[in-house]
Amino acid sequence: MADTTDELAGVVDLFGGLTRAELEQALVELAFKQGKDVDRDAFAAEIERAVEDYYLVETEVESERADTAADDTESVLVAGPAAFPTVPENGEDLPHILDAPDRKIDREGMGEAVAERLRDDARTVAAAGDAERAQELLDVSYDLEAWAPVDTDDVRETLDRAFE
C-alpha cells in the first residue's frame, strides 16, 4: 500500500490518471504484494485527504471504455500540484497487473479548474481567519503555478486576509 500522499500520487502517475475505483484496486494489489492488510475504508479516506490537500486532483475525461457511450465522461484522479509523485515499493509492477485505459488529460483546462477550486478554498479560509490552512494553501498556490500555466496572485492576496 502507498504510505504517503506522494506515493498515492506516484501510483496515479504511473497510469497518467485513475478512477477512484481503479486507484483503490491498485492499492489492494499493492498491499497484497507488500504482504499488508487491505482496508478499503482506509484507502478511501487517504484518497479523500490527498484530494483535499491537492496531492491528487479530480478531473473529467472522455471515457475510453468500450462499454460506455462515446460522449460519456468519467472522473479520474491525477497527481496534483502539491505532490512529488513517488512510486511505492512494488509499485512498478502495477501497470502489468491493473488494466487501466490510456486517458487524454487536458492539463491546461485542469490547471484552470484547480485554480478556481483554490480561489474558493482561499475565500473560505480567509473568511474563517484560519491561518494554518491559509499557509498550506499559500504553498499550494506556488506549487500550482509551477504545475500548470495559471496565475494565482489573487489567491495569495485573498489568503493574506487570513493572517490579519
Topology, element by element:
Elements lengths: L4 H11 L4 H15 L5 H13 L3 E7 L10 E7 L14 H4 L9 H22 L2 H17 L5 H8 L4
Antiparallel strand pairs: 1-2
Notable characteristics:
two-stranded antiparallel sheet; Arc Repressor Mutant, subunit A; 2 domains; mainly alpha; 164 residues
How does the overall form come out from the CA principal axes? globular
With strands numbered from the N-terminus, the spatial order across the biggest sheet is 1-2
Average pLDDT level: 90
Order of helices and strands: HHHEEHHHH
What's the helical proportion of residues?
40-55%
By DSSP, the count of extended strands is: 2
- Given helix and strand content, the structural type is mainly alpha
Give me the number of helical elements: 7
Distance between the termini: 41 Å
The CATH topology of the largest domain is given as: Arc Repressor Mutant, subunit A
Radius of gyration: 17 Å
Name of the CATH architecture of the largest domain: Orthogonal Bundle
